[in-house]
Amino acid sequence: MLKFTPIILLILYLAAVWFFSLWRLKQELNQRSTPLSHPRLTPMLERLGRAMDLPAVRAHVYEVEPVNGLAAPDGRIFLTRGFIRKLDAGEVTPEELASVIAHELGHVAHGHARRRMIDFAGQNAIRMALAGILGRIIPGLGVWIAGLVATAVAARLSRDDEFEADRFASALMIRAGLGTDPQISLFRKLDRLTGKGMGQAPAWLLSHPPTARRIAAIEAHKARWHDG
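Below the sequence we write its predicted structure tokens.
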């Protein structure tokens, strides 16, 4: 039994980290968000809801400036205040923000938000295990290599989730009569809107797939669905 004690302690530690991260995120969102009520977005929320045979989609505004969307582990959908400011400035359209909400709904439908929290714990477990093994084999470099491997694994899982959420969003946008053009046009603006270039890190370390690949996947799904 004693030989399993380190494993049991590691599992308990990772569970504690997971629950603490979940609690901290919920507190942050509760304190810094308000219900989304915008005259140009309300019709979009209603259309997305009707497309799923549900009432209007409920969303919230996360009061931070970076341009982003978020699906919380409890199923709530958020757009950042920065994204709303872009809408008011005419830099994005209501249909484009509808595609963001549809994407986040995809994360909720597939359980990605909760899975990412678990992946976070798993990433730490991989890092700690590899660091212990490689640290003996390659002193000084073992911890760095372990971190690189854990990050690459987590990034791969995250990219798979993004493609899956994109596919859900495309189907929902088509069913809502909005089509995939807003989804694609927003992707073409994202690097400028966020001030980030997708070439800043190797693709296998990026948590989101390269924009060009996401657009190509959406266009392929659209063509396949129309052919069908």
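The chain has eight helices and four strands.
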